[in-house]
## 1
Amino acid sequence: MLRLLNVQGKQIEPYVDALGALRITVFRDYPYLYDGSLEYERDYLKVYTEGERSLAVLAFHGDAVVGATTCMPMADEGPEFQAPFLQAGHDISQICYLGESILLPQYRGRGIGRQFFKHRENHALSLGLNQAAFCAVDRPPDHPSRPDNYRPLDEFWKARGYQKQPHLQALFRWKEVNEVEESAKTLTFWTKELK
């Protein structure tokens, strides 16, 4: 049985290393192929520990963090997340940015992903935000690292009420497992009106 724990702002600090290690493990797989380090993760996650309006939902199996999801107001996020929305004329003060939603493979298929979305959307509504947005990396169907059994999450996201917004894209850089150095990747945003 998995246990979920909501932590906000500075309450996230004791879990930063566990969250960072989980991100490194899960995002190493396709489609992100992320070759990360705990040092980078600690720096990346500061925006959540320093933000008073941020939320992390942690999934525990016993004492081990086996899944996590995060969110925060888009207005508190970095400019690289805000830019596509500002350029398209959106009011970022009304948007909640949904960060990662990650779960170790052996715990998938138990409804935790749906609960992660519910917790984040409820948090957004509690802050008075009326839209949620997240982004996902774009990969071609014939990508050489795509596993034969890979199933994109598009249908799962659509079932949660999210719509892909091809005009809202951002470039992010990270080092892939087979790369010598970082390269730019395109990520496309998905959005949903919250009620």
## 2
Amino acid sequence: MEDNKGPAIKAACITLWTLGTVFVCLRLFTRKHIMKNVQVDDYLIILATAFGWANAAMAIVAVAHGSGRHTDTLTLGQQGNAKLFTILSFPFGILSFTIPKLAVVTLLTRLLNPSRVRQAFLWSLAWLCLISVIICIIILFTQCTPAAFMWGGAPEGKCISPWVLINFSIFTGALSAFTDLCLAIYPAVILWGLQINIRKKTALSVALGIGSISCGVAIYKSTRLDSLASLDFVYDTADLVIWTAAEATSTVIACCIPILQPLVEILFGRKILSGSSSSYKNYDYHNDRYGRSGDMELSKIGRSGIQHTVTSHTIGTRSGDPDLDSKESILPKDNKGADGQNPKMHSRHITRTDVITVTYGDRATIDSEQKDLGVTTAV
């Protein structure tokens, strides 16, 4: 039997949050330098990452005092400190996987413009998760009177049954998993109803729906919650500490991946999403692919949930070079034939073709969309 899980706790917390921080940095680079616009959800992700590192710091300090080892191998002082810092790590951990849910809802409501009912549903789930974890934190620190009695900091005291905290934590974990699943499924359902390239549709659905991974992690972590009632607390809660960090980092990474689309396309080419082999070397993301809010234009969905499509038709053409304004001025003026053309250039003539496109759509819809987001997307 493994007698010391302390090194595993340290390795997991440092590795997971280092990886998560890399994705957060890439997200911020994309937002600031490519999209030219940092949004509220970016600040929420930064806050979640800060809580995550606080969780890791508390867990590492707990390991230094003996967390991850069996209680009977520690002194009373080590037992108290290990339990104290383990308990202190939990609030930061659960906040670090709850706050990103607010960031995801912020992103989805801005990109997909859902109806008021759908917005209310998404925001209700996110805020209910936050309220639930706050209640968990309150129960955690008030289950014993005085609170220091929990970790041996007070000689006398009394505590309620630890299963009060465990049962409510299981409810909170289930709610968190359900929220992650809803936030993963919703954009996929919307995207599959849009008239866009199947490859791009699939890629965007996967990018926005990757949060379903954190749903699975949340479910598994909930099976470790009974360790909160263990008499060998500092040893048995080691798995819970690790999986709390895993749930938080998977949620943060899942929030960052959709934002990295333009960076990925710059690095690997436009064909990643659109199937084209053209490069984005000279592509202006801020002014072309993205609206004034700095986000990728997936589609515009009306408040009523009905997609409004703007249609384009080519109504005429004329000959010429599409990149040049000059016509006859670029041909030699001497030695013209009877038809006014240079015989030597006759077989090498330059053709100009101008395509005139008229875009039209429902005026009321366009006005409404411009009012909401300041941009109208043509599909």
## 3
Amino acid sequence: MPDIYDFSIETLNGQTLPLASYRGKVLLLVNTASECGFTAQLGGLEQLYQRYREQGLEIIGFPCNQFGGQEPGDAAAIGQFCQKNFGVSFALSAKIDVNGADAHPLWRHLVAAKPGLLGSRRIKWNFTKFLVDGEGRIRKRFAPYVKPAALERAIESLLRTQKH
């Protein structure tokens, strides 16, 4: 099975970002959408990022249009929306699929490592969250309705145990 650090993503601005550059950091990986009932979570994610980034937290948002067509914009529209409405400063990937034949390999890896309810290897909706420790181990999966603030205890625990 590949390691999380074997994957690279394309950022919203078209750059290649190897996840190996995050080795030693706690990662929160989230599929996002601009027109979802959970979109306000972008603000909560930014608050987590501001609070914990100096301690080693990195967040990557993965815009996805697979759930109700709730991420219809292009890269420029997505970036502008996230910045203007929520002040997002954490990394955003290019728009991806998280389910199906065209699912990004990273997301296939995430759901295989941490299946959902009843062992499902599908993402149910926008704002599914995966928490990864500094060693690249996928530690927890959080449902879309779980607000970012509810992740603080799990993030703090991983930050305390990571190698500096």
